[in-house]
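Troubleshooting log. The previous run stalled partway through. Resubmitting the same two chains, unchanged.
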Amino acid sequence: MKYTQKDQPEEPNAKTYDEGNPAEECAADEAQAITGGSTGDPAIPDVDEDDDDRVPFIEKSEEEVIAERQERQEEADEQADALRKAEEERQLEFAKQGEEPVIVIKGLKKAFGEHEVLRGVDLHVNKGENLVILGKSGTGKSVLIKCLVGLEWPDEGEITVFGKNLPSLNYRELNESRKRTGFLFQNAALYDSMTVRENLLFPLRQLKKDMTKEKKESLIMEMLDNVGLAEAIDQLPSKLSGGQNKRIGLARTLILRPELMLYDEPTTGLDTGTGKEISELMIKMKKKYNISSITITHDMTCARMTADRIIMLREGVVVARGTYEELEKSDDEWIKSFFY
Amino acid sequence: MEPVLNRYQRARIRVREKKSQWKGFFYNAGDLVAFMGRFFKEVWKPPYEWREVLYQCYLVGYKSTFLIGLTGFIMGVVLTIQTRPSMAAFGAISLIPGMVSVSVIREIGPVITAIICAGKVGSRIGAELGSMKVSEQIDAMEVSAINPYRYLVVTRTLATTLMIPLLAIFADVIALFGSYVAMNIHDATTLRHFFLVAMAHLEFIDVFPALVKTVFFGYVVGIIGCYKGYNARRGTESVGIAANSSVVAASLAVFIIDLIAAQVTDLL
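Second attempt completed without errors. Output:
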């Protein structure tokens, strides 16, 4: 006796099994499971190897969706090409003026599995300049700056920091570049088992072995004075507020006198007043130590106060560049949504 | 809306899951071996973090002495009380010190010490490093050009490798003392006589391999704790997972090493 799948019209290619041979049935099941063949049931979507376990029902046909996606992709690529050309022209201008950019990124691509986070980013940062990167969550802003210190590695593209292509450096050379770069993490990333003094002393003890104890002590005091938290020197980070932790994080980063600062959402999670204080501190430090920097933020007040230039990332592609004032006047609805 | 999956689709999902589980297992095993190997490369490189090593030795060694001592004492007492009736039946009560010393020094002392340390020290290391990973403290070291492996992993693993053998010796001595106390419940013997009899039954082959295997126990407890913490994923839940899996993996590794050590000792 033969049977077909229940509640299903007989089809010429419908699979049939001999009831009396379960081994054959199992083998057929397994073969189908491994080869990824169709289930033959029109009511049940076929599960592909790459698909999620749960497949949503969609109204548009597959062809329509693909065409729409291609169209969007082409538009985005055209826009990115135009901006890339503008970026190259801008770099040429600076090169003519004899200014060497601190960071030059060309065609940076990064994907996590199937998900492409960065899809060909080009940018540069000049000496003493603060470049603000704006974009919605999940557009690859943090990944971008993590690529600048070797916390993430790009899949494609060039990252030149202080004139050296980062992906081609060995560990020691990468560390030389890291010594000239400061990174302020979103949550400050203070060592919570150490006091504020020990947090600031730790990088000095590790990297400035020739420095005398007195010099280290005076440097710690100078940095804490800079951020206005000299009285917190013997406190543990857990006893300090979020804003104070950010300041200490900034002091710890600046104690190594970096030439380049990377700020990962420096004002996130802070009230407006404290956020402004941090922004002012960033400007003060930039002027005092002539630091170039990249700031990632969603905080438009911070962007307005600190940015020399802004770039906007959307789905891993730079979609707009300019000063705060230029972008504020943009007619693009998406860009406007950040400013108003 | 979730579609209802038929048995073919379910089978394919199961096969895919199995494939990814095995792939993940081999990937993790390879990663662990590379992580363990890196220790031998990094441990010789200056600068040496003596201050941190000493602090970790204090945490692993000194802070565990009470727990290890108490466990050792109970171990000695229980072993003596449990074996006494059988030994008395054979009229071999005078052999109890020798039997206890051989079993404690060869097997029970090192294994119990390693298991307690896997629970106490391994979980602490896993949770500490996991928390540092989640709060980006390890990344902060990395971007400051400080080698976090050398500062965090080498120091902690070195401390467990040095301290667990010492703790095992301490546990052995206390267990013998416990046995002496238990002996005096029914019989009367002096401490000197008890230890003389206990030592008379010990040979080089009982002591040396046991000491060597505690060094390996110390190494795996430290390195597995560090590996689990160092590779914690983002999120607070992963800290708990790191601590928990440190204990499970380190305990299992201790038993596997013990099995290998027993086989090797048997050949000698």
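Takeaways: Residues 103-339 of chain A form a domain with the Rossmann fold fold (CATH 3.40.50.300). Chain A touches chain B through 42 residues (CB under 8 Å).
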